[in-house]
Amino acid sequence: MTPVGLEHFLVVSGVxxxxxxxxxxxxxxxxxxxxxxxxxxxxxxxxxxxxxRFNNRLDGQIMVFFIITVAAAEVAxxxxxxxALYRKKQTAHVEDLATMKL
Length: 102
Fold this sequence. Notes:
The chain has a single domain, classed as Helix Hairpins, CATH 1.10.287. The protein has three helices and no strands. By secondary structure, the protein is mainly alpha-helical. It has helices spanning 6-26, 30-54, 59-89. Helix 1 (6-26) runs antiparallel to helix 2 and helix 2 runs antiparallel to helix 3 (59-89).
């Protein structure tokens, strides 16, 4: 059995990032797009932690801690905006939201 190396983690991170990018490009539902953006953010976090682990330094892990903290605030604000848009327009599809004026 081969040991898990840095390249394995980076491949998983790349696949997750590509899946998130595909979700943002293809899907037109705001909630699905938002979840895809979060998947891309977590793929970048995985790459940072992997580099940090294999270089025996804590810089990447500390940076990920701050990124997750900011992402938690982003989730609260983003979901509040999506809920407000849904209540006003009764849809969560991007093409139905031609203007951002409420």
